[in-house]
Every structure is written in structure tokens, then in C-alpha cells.
Backbone:
């Protein structure tokens, strides 16, 4: 004769199995309804900058596609590391995201960070790529990149080039040009773009590397002109401006920005975010606004974006080591 106790282990197993099945079902329902509340996108830089500007173009449309508001929160400071650190510590549920730029990988080459860009984040999608360009001031008579390089070789160390700071992508663009074109142009770091532009306009600085977004409205003003760009494709708003790589093979200097989620974010949520962002970026109105700013976007899976980020991290780390750049 069997007792109630003899059946207890079997009943316990059934109860446990039922509980696990219920939890699994709840998990499936939760993921199936993602998102069911607003998303927060942390921008690592201040309002009005290139990263913030592009984020405010595309994120409202992402929210419309997801059916939930996407709230942008600016967390500037320490070269963008404060915002990135915040997201790295956030719950990996798809509701807190990071919108960051090239500084995401450059910072990792320049300083000790409170996070690991490879281990603490999951790349979601690249939002945009913006070439850096060479913008000359009125004090330089060169009309082309060839004339500028000839002048730099004839007067080594006599030309000054500004940037928005040591370790910025514009600073690294100059170091790359010096090494690959065998010239010596001095780097003069500024705290902000307006100060650099004022000295360029007045002739105190010969040239600057700047993003196409920054340079487009300045091109043709007060003797300033863009003579070359660091991208691989033409910039519609700068017709006739040639690629630096035409004279300096292999040269490429472009700022980019993309969206990252905390490590551990479910792959299906990352895939959903990537798909919706990609479709939003392909819309004509957004493409037109990006083109006006000298930016472009492309279709890219999370895996392709992750491969790109890893390659960028290695590329800039190598240049920082070779040029001995330090903050």
C-alpha cells in the first residue's frame, strides 16, 4: 500500500515543472510586448552637438515605430565617459540605451575607464557617419590638398591646425595626416569649436580639421573653404571636394555615432531595436535632414556594427600608441 508520502516527490516535481512553465510563459509574454513603457536614450555629450542633433532627428521617429516615447537624456562630461558609465550600470532590459560617438572607442585608447567597451555593452546599430574635413582659413593661399601638402613640406612645423581638444577625432585626423603624408603640421587644441573657428576666421590659425556638419555652414565664409574630406564617399553638400585618400592612399577619418545597450540585453530586443532604427533611418525625410548635415546612414546588422566598432577601437588604439598621444 502506498502512502501520501510516497507520492510527494512526484507531486513536488510536477509543481516545480508547472512553476517553471508559468515563468517561461510570463517571460515570453513580457518580451512579446516589448516595449511597454518609455525608453531612455543617454547622449554622452551636451545639447546642440553633432551627436545630440542627429539623435533628436531620429529618436522621435524610433519612438513612433515602437509605440512608446523615446526620451533623450544628455549626460555630458569627462569626454563622454559619464554617460557611457551610466548606461553600463543600467538594467539590461532594452529600456536604457546609449547614443555615443567615435569618442566611445577613442576614450578606451586614451584613458582608464570605469567600464569595458567590449564587455559591458552590446552594439545595436550605427546611426550615422560624418567625414572630417580640412577647412582652411584666409591666411593660407593653398587652393587644393596638393598645394597644402606642398606648403607643409616646404615649411615643416610652420602651419598650425586646430581641433576641439587632445584626443578628439579631429586631432587624430591631423596626426594621421602627418604620418601618412610625411608632413609636420602643428596641433593647437581648443576647448570648443567656436573659439577655434574665430581664430581660423581671423587668420591666427591656418587650418582646422572639423566634421562636415560643422564645416558646411562655414564653407565660403570670410575666406574659409573646405579643400578635402576624410570620407570614402562624396558629400552632396560639398560638391567637388575631393577625398584625402586620393592623394594619401588609405587615409580615412570619419566620426560616427551609434546606439549601444548594456551587456546582457536580450538578443531579440537588440534585433527589434536594430530593425526599427534601420527602417527609421531609411525614411526620406530623415535621409534629407542627414544629408543637409553632411551625415549618412547605412543598413547594418548588430553583428556588423559590432565588427565595425571592434575594428575602430583597434585602429585608433594603434594610432594613439604610434603617435604617443596622451591626455
Residues:
Amino acid at each position: 500500500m502506498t502512502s501520501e508520502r510516497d507520492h510527494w516527490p512526484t507531486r513536488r516535481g510536477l509543481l516545480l515543472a508547472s512553476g517553471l512553465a508559468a515563468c517561461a510563459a510570463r517571460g515570453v509574454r513580457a518580451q512579446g510586448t516589448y516595449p511597454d513603457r518609455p525608453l531612455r536614450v543617454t547622449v554622452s555629450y551636451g545639447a546642440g552637438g553633432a551627436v545630440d542633433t542627429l539623435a533628436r532627428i531620429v529618436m522621435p521617429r524610433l519612438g513612433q515605430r515602437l509605440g512608446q516615447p523615446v526620451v533623450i537624456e544628455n549626460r555630458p562630461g569627462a569626454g563622454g565617459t559619464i554617460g557611457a558609465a551610466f548606461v553600463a550600470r543600467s538594467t539590461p532590459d532594452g529600456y536604457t540605451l546609449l547614443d555615443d560617438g567615435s569618442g566611445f572607442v577613442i576614450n578606451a585608447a586614451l584613458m582608464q575607464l570605469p567600464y569595458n567597451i567590449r564587455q559591458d555593452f552590446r552594439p545595436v546599430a550605427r546611426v550615422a557617419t560624418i567625414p572630417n574635413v580640412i577647412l582652411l582659413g584666409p591666411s593660407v593661399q593653398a587652393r587644393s590638398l596638393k598645394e597644402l601638402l606642398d606648403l607643409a613640406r616646404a615649411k615643416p612645423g610652420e602651419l598650425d591646425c586646430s581641433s576641439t581638444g587632445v584626443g578628439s577625432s579631429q586631432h587624430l585626423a591631423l596626426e594621421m595626416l602627418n604620418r601618412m603624408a610625411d608632413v609636420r603640421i602643428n596641433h593647437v587644441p581648443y576647448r570648443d569649436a567656436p573659439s577655434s573657428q574665430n581664430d581660423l576666421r581671423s587668420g591666427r590659425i591656418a587650418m582646422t580639421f572639423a566634421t562636415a556638419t560643422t564645416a558646411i555652414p562655414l564653407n565660403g565664409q570670410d575666406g574659409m573653404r573646405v579643400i578635402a574630406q576624410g570620407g570614402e564617399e562624396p558629400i552632396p553638400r560639398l560638391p567637388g571636394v575631393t577625398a584625402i585618400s586620393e592623394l594619401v592612399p588609405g587615409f580615412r577619418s570619419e566620426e560616427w555615432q551609434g546606439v549601444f545597450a548594456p551587456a546582457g540585453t536580450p538578443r531579440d530586443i537588440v534585433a527589434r531595436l536594430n530593425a526599427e532604427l534601420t527602417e527609421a533611418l531609411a525614411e526620406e525625410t530623415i535621409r534629407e535632414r542627414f544629408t543637409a548635415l553632411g551625415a549618412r546612414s547605412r543598413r547594418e546588422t548588430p553583428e556588423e556594427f559590432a565588427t565595425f566598432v571592434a575594428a575602430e577601437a583597434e585602429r585608433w588604439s594603434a594610432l594613439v600608441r604610434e603617435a604617443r598621444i596622451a591626455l
